[in-house]
Amino acid sequence: MTKLAEPRCAVLVGPYLSGKTTLLESLLSITETVHRKGTVKDGNTVGDSSAEARARQMSTELTAAPATYLDDQWTFVDCPGSVEFSQEAQGALSIADIAVVVVEPETDRAVMLSPLLHFLDSRNIPHMIFINKVDHVDATLSDVLAAYQAVSERPLVMRQVPIQDGETIKGYVDLISDRAYNYNSGSASDLVEIPTELQESEQSARMEMLETLADFDDDLLTQLIEDVVPPKEEIYQFLKKDIADDKVVPVLFGSAENEQGVRRLLKALRHDAPGPEDTAERLGIEAEGEPLAWIFKTVHAPHLGKLSLARIFRGAIKDNATLGDTHPSGMFRLTGEKHEKLSEAKLGEVAALGRLEGAKTGNVLTPSGKAPDGLESFPEALPPMYSAAISTEKSSDEVKLSEAMAKIAEEDPSLSYEQNPDTNELVLWGQGEMHLQIAADRFKNKFNLSSVTMNKPQTPYNETIAKPISQHARFKRQTGGHGQFGDVHVDIKPLSRGSGFKFDSKVVGGHVPRQFIPAVENGVKDYLTSGPLGFPVVDLSVTLTDGQHHAVDSSEMAFKQAGRLAMSEGLPQCKPVLLEPICKVTISLPSEATSKAQRVISGRRGQILGFDAKPGWKSWDEVSALMPRAEIHDLIIELRSLTFGAGSYTFEFDHMQELSGRDAEQVVAARAEAKKAS
Fold first, then answer.
1. What is the pTM of this model?
2. How many CA atoms lie within 13 A of 376 on its CB side?
3. Which domain holds residue 332?
4. Ramachandran area for residue 30 (φ above 0: left; ψ -120 to 50: alpha; else beta)
């Protein structure tokens, strides 16, 4: 009796609009997982089931669905194509046996694949390319293949050549089996004779494929040198090994919408995809040992609560099993939003483990609570590139908003939030404008927070002084009983940029009693939170040089008020100067767009520091620059428009720099208007 293969996992990835969700529907239809194939247009697909996805007709989160094909068990995971949801794809790819990169036959969009292919190759994840929508081809497939080869570190191996009728692709010739097929829309292809006019080009393509495989196998190379054509069974074995080792990338084509080429894709996956044992070895998981599961996605589902999607890489996990300090409460097999109760998840399976409190995406689960040494690292959270100030119109919703923020950040680690101490705003960070819009919709749809608003965050400007001054201030108030009296003399001086604030006392003789000196400092600090221009004041020193006190009326409060009064009267005379934050920005993009990026930097008041080839990336550059923080807010939108969505950047605060002229006047006026409005 032949042992059935362990359940395998194939992850569908690729650019936005390439047809991944449609491909998933076709895969589920052919495997009879669903009785009726849905469409994105009709909003009835297994994937894209959330309200946010349905509204935009685009994937906003991954979808897992099991299927069985010729007795082989699979979990297919459909990932969003938008670059703003790359974190979803990276998490799923980390536990995949193989990735199916779905692309369109368009040469000018090939650059969009660069970040994805680099991620796959950097982790040696086996993958194949499926050129979708070949019923609408404007370029030849050879041109398309050349365009994608230009952005791939690994050699692409064409598994098929098209059978064409004019501009229409009506079938294909399989280069290993040497068989030809004509497409039937919605059903299996018909076996036909290889067209006479195609035989020469087919043999040439077949030899090219063999020569590519021979680069990684000496036995095959020897056979080709001796003009020996290896048997088909050997070629299949060569190809399977090279795919598993991420040495070559097979390329197939078809039309997911019409189910053309999809069965061929299924058969290729069946024959060529590694199993979970191979993947575990690649990830650094030894075959022997206690049961092990790896969480690649966290979901807060209605009625089910927190679910941890995990792949089983060793042994089996039972419902309510001990996993370190916690136990799953409920175990499910997901098909989109539908769930099936499981009592046990076995090697290779993907399961949703319920209510694993404390467990996070990327965690490895074992009964002992210990992860093995030498594991492949789980992808880190992508650096933030776009932000919005988030608030709620109802004060009663503030606690609810805080809880919702924590949950969506747990679901998507590329979302983060912070309370900005300089602007006192709650800021949500993500990968782009759409990313945050989807987050806002989830607040409404998932957490019933309709009062949430998002706005452009304030830039954390500061101000300083350019001129020193000595200032005397007296706070005196008589109220019938004990009054209030505090008298101070202070020297106010500018400091070098980045020095912050310094306070000192040179009072002698007890004119200001020692116990009141900290109160003066507190009064000074109190004023510095908002100076003459309306912003926090930095880079100055204040020295208490003299003063007076009253034996009865002096108090800490009186001297605090005197300190504040000295600053409010003195600082406007010190030539206040506006400071804006300057950030070190590193832009990553295809080399062909480098000159355009330099113009973008200049147009945003930036200073180019230099550029160089991006380490480990094929035909990519890194451009470094200094740029005002105020100019960075929508930088990613412009970069992506220049690079078909491929460009990205990172930034970090570098220094504060004086801002003058019209720009400074506009900032100060805007702050004054904001204060009036509040």
1. 0.92
2. 20
3. 290-365
4. alpha
